[in-house]
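user: Please review this fold.
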Amino acid sequence: MKTTVELQDDLFRRAKAAAAMRGETLKVFISTALEARLVSVATHLPRSGWRRAFGRATEEQVAEVDAALVGEFDKIDFEAWR
């Protein structure tokens, strides 16, 4: 996919030079850098609400609790709560 991204001149020159030094195209260099950043961000997302209580829980453990909660919420008779 093509897109346009506006970069500061200095950042663009540094990225282009770094790509050239690695023997990569700018497209490959930026794609690799962006992918690495996305992985880093995904693994360091702050947990909010009740998830903070899990601290270092794995995603599988959190998913297990989420599934249990969904199962319990499915049992609620919302008409009775009106």
In short: The chain has a mean pLDDT of 83. The chain is about 60% helix and 0% strand. The chain has two domains: 1-45, 51-82.
